[in-house]
Amino acid sequence: MTQRLVAGAAALRGTILVPADKSIGHRALLANAIADGEATVRLRAPGRDLESTISCLARLGVDIRRTGDAVTLRGALLRPAVESIDCGNSGTTMRLLAGVMAGQAIEGVLDGDESLRRRPMERVATPLRAMGARVATTGGHAPIELRGGRLHAMSHELPVASAQVLGAVAFAALGCDGSTTVHLPGPTRDHTERLLAWMGVPIRREGAWTTIAGPARPTARSLDVPGDPSSAAAWLVAGALHPDADLVLPGVGLNPTRLAFLDVLREMGIRVEVEESASDGPEPVGEIRVTSGERPRPIRIGGEEVAALIDELPLLGVAMAAADGASELRDAGELRVKESDRIATMVAGLAAIGARVDELPDGWRVSRGTARDAAIATGGDHRIAIAFAVAALAGVAGTVQVDDAEAASVSYPGFWDHLDALAAVPA
To answer: What's the total number of domains in the chain?
Structure first.
């Protein structure tokens, strides 16, 4: 592991192009891999998770050509893999690919690193089995073995609001005769519906229900994947908390199901401006700007809004630690089964940087303390590494030593270069 020391910046000003959105990138690669025709998916600075999806598709016989950040795929039926397919650290790759393989009755074993092997996989295996796929997990986790099976259309009532499970079922439903419906108990991202509809698949979302009419095959379509709002969130929090900041983030995805984070920042009194631009793809795109303001107000997060904030909650934990008054996160037990136990890891890190913090079964309670130097154990988690680097850069912490700087490359391979560029801006 490569350690990294981060100190406060004199000022935070500039323009940052964040990496391609992982959620959209995974789906664009998978859909075009099984589509009719050839298409190019342009991924700005793809991280390790997107590279895992590209590698898995190559193992399944997809014709893939790379030119810089452009990935050209010729759609085809997948072929079985003799050896296990390594999904790396990417839960999205594993869950969505399980649905793709089930939809084509492709046999194979999906595996990953030690962290991915700890993440729950029955939540995707259960609906696929109900459709007729032969799926076996290992004690509810990876490796996942798919052994074919003839699928049938049906109605699903998912116990958790998961865009990954919804996506897996939607991809599997492409191989079914008839309409497959999925009911979600709460709001989720709608990237799967937007993309597949744009590619000609008869899919629609109406309220809590998504319906897919099969059999169907997407029509290959090239696209530029917009910037990841979860990566942009790092600089939005840094700019909001720093006393001298003006940051512009162009080309960021503005899907409404991904902008709950901006609503929370505004509720905390943070000045964020959004300007949408023209887009020829399935997703809205635009520019986000953040400037320094007053100290943020405390906030309480819980209930249905948690699902829409799940990737940004570590950064919001840092923002809470800068607020006057106690903030609270509840109903976020899902954080305990991410790349790390993000509740325990965040609470330990917030305490280390001087915040007043209590660990709750499904979240935390935190208020501002006295910033101090700290060594942060990330648990190999990219969200944790980025969150505490931002805490130091913005002055919420003293100097911070991150134990595994390389973890950031899972979602944001250029993070440290961007941080260094901002830290070098004079006051």
So the answer is: 2
